[in-house]
Predict the structure.
Amino acid sequence: MTEISYRDAMGAAIREAMIADPRVFLMGEDVGHYGGCYAVSKGLLEEFGPERIRDTPLSESAFTGAGIGAALGGMRPIVELMTCNFSLLALDQIMNNAATLRHMSGGQFNVPLVIRMATGGGRQLAAQHSHSLEGWYAHIPGIRVLAPATVEDARGMLGKALDDPDPVLIFENALLYNQTAEIVEPVSVDIDHAAVRREANHVSLITYGGSLGKTMEAAGKLEKDGIEAEVIDLRVLRPLDEATILKSVAKTRRAVVIDEGWRSGGIAGEIIARIVEGAFWELDAPPARVCSAEVPIPYARHLELAALPSIERIVSAARAVMGR
Amino acid sequence: MGSFKMPSLGSDMEDGTLVEWLKKPGDQVHRGDIVAVVETEKGAIEIEIFEDGQLDKLIVAPGTKVPVGTVLATLVGGETPTIEEPKPEIAPQLAAEPVRPMPTEIMPTAGTRQRVSPAARRLAEQGNIDLATVRGSGPDGAIVVADLAIEAKPVSTKTLPDLEPMRRAIAAAMSRSKREIPHYYLSHSIDVEKAQNWINRYNMERESADRLLFAVLLIKASALALRDYPEFNGFHEEGNFAPSAAIHVGLAIAIRGGGLAAPAIHDSDKLGLPALMAKMRDLIGRVRRGGFRSSEISDPTVTISSLGERGVEALLPVIYPPQVAILGFGTPLPKPWSVNGRIETRSIMTASLAADHRVSDGHRGALLLKRIDELLNTPEALQ
């Protein structure tokens, strides 16, 4: 057992992959000399050299495209986009090239690319640095979307993502980097299934990424009220592990989805649609959502906190579906 | 003005759930028309009306459970029996109906619909729970599963009838029978070789749709024999036996997955064999689908239980009250049999009779079985 931070777990995962496979390399803005905007790749330049730890210009589209080309050429690139807010500059490369090439080449080409990016708000970085766009990416066929919410998943998911012959996007909620936990090496996780982080019978709280911690705390508060909340960590936003969701809801008959994305057109709505399609006759209450307020995430501390899902809002949504 | 009431389809029936109206207000109805479908412990039953007239108002909404005798609909016109009722002195509007506990909610009130969660709605249907009697504790007062206070059952296939109410109905009727009726039992071995040969020849000359089952001969022979022994055909109610002029044989039909029903073949003694066969086929089909008529359930004057080809040698049946007799026919089996002083292999069937000793004695019962034996040995005369 070693206690390790989410940041260091992610760094260790990159290092392990670099050692295991010479085709693996990391590129992105400030990943080399600066050690990564969130210090994930600190020390890697010294260990692996500038050929494999590559600082790039501030041009997400260009270096994501370069990553796609390298993957097509037989490499196993890890592309770091500083935050998902800037990933939109590379959206054309991700969606029109990475996600489509296997399909458009009739299976002749595949793109074994991993793209990592930070996501989420809560750090007073204002509207251009605080959004949660993983739900958007989960809309796109041809890519896999991961949201590691625990240190263990941060340590274990990258290796599995590199093994995937198709593009994988990893969304790391920036508030998680300082979180620490004891993990047992070697970590073995899958990138197919949701995880039940807390088993209970009254209501299913379904969440992922940065909202998992808040949801676990909310479940603890609900327990004091006599409400036993099950917590599902989705882990994989595409493809969704519908079976785990439906099994939980069929047991508890109630669902609250907690998602830091906006409510309209978001992944929380998709999950609720799946619940209604697949478990309508099991329901005892209309499913509920706790999402971010439909505003650009504010800079002011109190406004930002009011905009993001909070423990209080999760508790009150769970109480409402219980009829309390 | 007449009324159409929730009928009693057996002495043990206290209430029924109106499932469906098959007529609309304004429709002309005639005695014998099927007007509604009612769910009872015996399954879904089509209910006939006993008056001619025009349906005026449907009072009870589908899905509502009401006690026997509750007015389901009112009728106008027709030949409503005009019994002169004493003119009520006070509150004439209250005197029309016998006092029966009425359900609190008959028609759903627009706008204030009780909310029921999908899971609770399905569970209530499975458990035959009247949601009008349940208080909701969910969001907005919705009824949720926990309010139903019963455990969720595994999802049952829609097509199979719910057997639990039927099991309860059988339990109630059979317990009452064994408690109240002093049964006596007789049995008699009948050589049915001749009857079977006759039916085989009969069938060989016909298309499969026109062929007969051996059970048809048993029904016909029994019904004819009962004409001469009226103390086995009728109802024993409130200390008195009322023989029935008509012979309506109730045929015990097993339902797949458990349970049974014994609906009537009306005037079994008067029907020819092909007509009896058609009735039997029709009844078996409808019992297994769960769609027999109210009169078929309440009318049998005697019951026959036949084990068919794949059963065992003999059975000791239990009388279905208020009937006074039940005939049982075992599976015919090849046996060594003395024929004119020589041993031959013959097809032998054990016929048994359980009868009500309050009404008849063993001597007459024995004669009844002997008469059935004679009739089965002249199969050509049964046509």
About this structure: The mean pLDDT of chain A is 97. Chain A touches chain B at residues 253, 280-286, 320-323 (CB under 8 Å). The radius of gyration of chain A is 19 Å.
